[in-house]
Fold this sequence. Notes:
This protein is α/β, with parallel strands linked by helices. The chain has helices at residues 23-31, 52-59, 77-87, 106-114, 132-135, 163-168, 182-192, 213-233, 241-253, 255-258, 262-284, and strands spanning 10-16, 39-45, 66-70, 92-97, 101-102, 119-125, 159-162, 197-206.
Amino acid sequence: xxxxxxxxxxxxxxxxxxxxxxxxxxxxxxxxxxxxxxxxxxxxxxxxxxxxxxxxxxxxxxxxxxxxxxxxxxxxxxxxxxxxxxxxxxxxxxxxxxxxxxxxxxxxxxxxxxxxxxxxxxxxxxxxxxxxxxxxxxxxxxxxxxxxxxxxxxxxxxxxxxxxxxxxxxxxxxxxxxxxxxxxxxxxxxxxxxxxxxxxxxxxxxxxxxxxxxxxxxxxxxxxxxxxxxxxxxxxxxxxxxxxxxxxxxxxxxxxxxxxxxxxxxxxxxxxxxxxxxxxxxxxxxxxxxx
Length: 291
């Protein structure tokens, strides 16, 4: 990578599937961006059956270049992101989600860091657009470091990558679980290719959490499965099945301690579902080294 990249334009890839309740808020936030360069929004419709696309069109303004592309062959965020990148006109790709809200200087800040890196992850803030109880179900993401443990990895709801780098490493892996782990996998493959993954602390995306215990449980279960798959794929040893079973038993014993409050129940559900997902994936393929 050269010290400073030559930027022609930016494409913001925004994937949506049945996001009618939230997409207008994100589009309004993108309309208010302070970035002064040439850029567009590529809205990727991953098979919506609601009014997501119509609402997006009505929410955009003349100042926002919005293009809609269809990605209907697979119900998969990884697939939708790849379709969006293929359709993008810019040589720098920024990603965000339809249920979040970008800060006004989000794009300006992530582009500034991307000029001297191959891939960038921004700060994911859960404190502003979530119910006070719901946001206590999850620990806050660090403000000055990448959000995940292990090697540096960008959060898919707030990342940018040069299009040539994305193509070189093979894009998002569509064989991973539908909406989990493709951002970490992509980040790690970029790093393995000898390229720079940088953090942009002032590129802030307000991230919307699942507002119900059922939604939280489903998401964390998938995240737990993805964690095992990623460890296998990238040469790290997953937790042992025995330890996972013991963890589940300990979590069951903790039910009385957490059940008395909404916050406690949410925290217990998050931890239990994540551990259950890891255990399920371990039992599904206990001896596999790769996925």
